[in-house]
Amino acid sequence: MSTRQKLPIETGNLLANTRSQALSKHLFAVGFVARQLLETLHIDNPKLQQAAFLAGILHDIGKIDPEFQNWVNKKMGKIPESFIPEDGVHIDAPAKFSFEKHPRHHELSWVLAENLLAGCSLNATQRVQIAHGIYWHHTKPFRKEKDDKFTEPRAIYEIFKKSLIKDKFDDIYKKTLAVLEDIVNLAEKFEMQNSIPDFSKSFSSIPDSFPAYKKYNKWANELKEFQASVRENALNNLVRAAVISADRLVSGCSLDDLEEYLAEGTLVELLDKEIYQNKSTLQTNIKQCLQGFEASYPNSERNTAQSQAAKSLADLKKIAVINETASIGVLQGPAGCGKTKIALEWALNTDAEKIIWVCPRVQVCLGLLHDLTAD
Predict the structure, then answer these.
(1) Alpha-helical regions (H) of the chain
(2) How far is CA 336 from the centre of its chain?
(3) What is the distance of C-alpha 197 from the center of its chain?
(4) Nearest alpha carbon to residue 262 among 29, 12, 9
(5) What is the C-alpha separation between 352 and 331, in angstroms, rounded?
(6) Nearest to 179 by CA among 11, 1, 8, 65
(7) 3-state SS track over 140-163
(8) Distance between CA atoms of residues 18 and 252, nearest Å
(9) What percent of the chain lies above the pLDDT cut of 90?
(10) Does 270 score more than 60 pLDDT?
(11) Which of these, 98, 176, 104, lies nearest to 138 by C-alpha position?
């Protein structure tokens, strides 16, 4: 059975965040924007786009947790901190509630998603990508408890089940299916219902292990074997990055704006607004930086040599584009020769809009940050 069958469960009071965004609307919006983000970046891979969409609509499904709903309502002032339920059981008794000893929402989302997608039409690769995007859209929790009980996936289920006061776990799963029914209805308006598989109506099992953040074949002897791992990790990263970016954009919307995007079917404008309004000023900033060097050291042989190195690097990329081949330019030189400045000028010559600086040590990274942000 799929979630297409309407479930008589009220979902409008389930919230995703302190902006009062309804959980179902937040989830659909994140899934839609995550998929659209890959398409905007010209990543023409329908299976990967579907994985990003499904990871998005399931990434916060664990927020159906009654403890999370209590927390978000308290943050919004809808219920007082001293609230005691009708049955007389205070959530802070016998000990003060803490997410240190309770499953985080992305952990619970992953466990629920693994069961929701059991037996569906997705391939194994997509299942791995979705699990990765959900579990790792937040960092892995570091719990202070020495006897951390969350070292096994089953602990997420067992501890969550014991925390339930009014509901049984089956009731939580039914609410999950009801939220997904709302998402299916939204998907039909945006003509994306075909991207949603039939979800399993029953909770059946706990995964044996957590999704790996990175996976490499430690027995690999050939470059091709290593490349296979690199590709798998890279595709997982794309799904995760799309979900995180989409989550940031949707969570940044006011309740009224999100409602308007959904009502008018214009959710894609949220991504367009981000791309075009926040267009990079990197080129302008680099020009100003280089002009400062020229003003301070006019007709400098050092500046000339650095410019020539930057031009040579840029020419490598232009040749690669003409020949339709991949190219990685390598700049090698001793400390103090001006590699940072050369890299900036290379970025200017190749019309770069963003630079990602990867450093082997924190101290090196902090030094670069200081150089790049100093007056």
Answers:
(1) 23-40, 46-58, 66-75, 105-116, 124-135, 153-163, 169-189, 223-251, 255-264, 268-277, 282-296, 301-323, 339-349, 362-373
(2) 37
(3) 21
(4) 29
(5) 17
(6) 11
(7) CCCCCCCCCHHHCHHHHHHHHHHH
(8) 11
(9) 55
(10) yes
(11) 104
Query: What is the CA 91 to chain-centroid distance, rounded?
Result: 31
Q: Which two tokens stand for residue 208?
A: 């044996």
What does residue 344 show for φ and ψ, rounded to 5 degrees? -65, -45
- What is the distance between the terminal CA atoms of the chain, rounded to a whole angstrom? 63
Q: Which residues contact 101 (CB under 8 A, 6 or more apart)?
A: 143, 145, 149, 159
Token code pair at residue 358:
């990867």
For every residue of 108-134, DSSP letters joined together read HHHHHHHHHTTT-S--HHHHHHHHHHH
Contact at 8 Å (CB) between 254 and 270?
no
Among positive and negative, which fits the CA dihedral 153, 103, 95, 162? negative
Question: How far apart are the C-alpha atoms of 137 and 188, rounded to whole Å?
Answer: 26
- CB of 14 within 8 A of CB of 183? no
User: How many CA atoms within 13 Å lie on the side-chain side of 47?
Assistant: 11
Instruction: Verify cis geometry, omega within 30 degrees of 0, for the bond prior to 334.
Output: no
Kindly report which listed range (49-58, 83-92, 294-303, 333-342) carries the lowest average pLDDT score. 83-92
pLDDT score recorded for residue 97: 60
What is the dihedral sign for C-alpha 285, 287, 293, 296? Answer: negative
Burial of 121 (0-12, 13-18, 19+ CB in 10 A): exposed
User: What are the tokens at 32?
Assistant: 């839609």
pLDDT, one tens digit per residue, over 163-184 is 898 889 999 999 999 999 999 9
Query: pLDDT at position 146, please?
Result: 61
HSE of 180, CA atoms in CB hemisphere, 13 A: 31
Cβ pair 313, 342 in contact under 8 A: yes
DSSP state of 18: T
CA 175 distance to own-chain centroid: 24
| DSSP codes, 32-59 | HHHHHHHHHTT---HHHHHHHHHHHHHT
Measure the CA angle with vertex 188, ends 18 and 34; round to 5°.
50
Tell me the average pLDDT across 241-264.
94
- Identify the residue whose tokens are 């925390």: 163
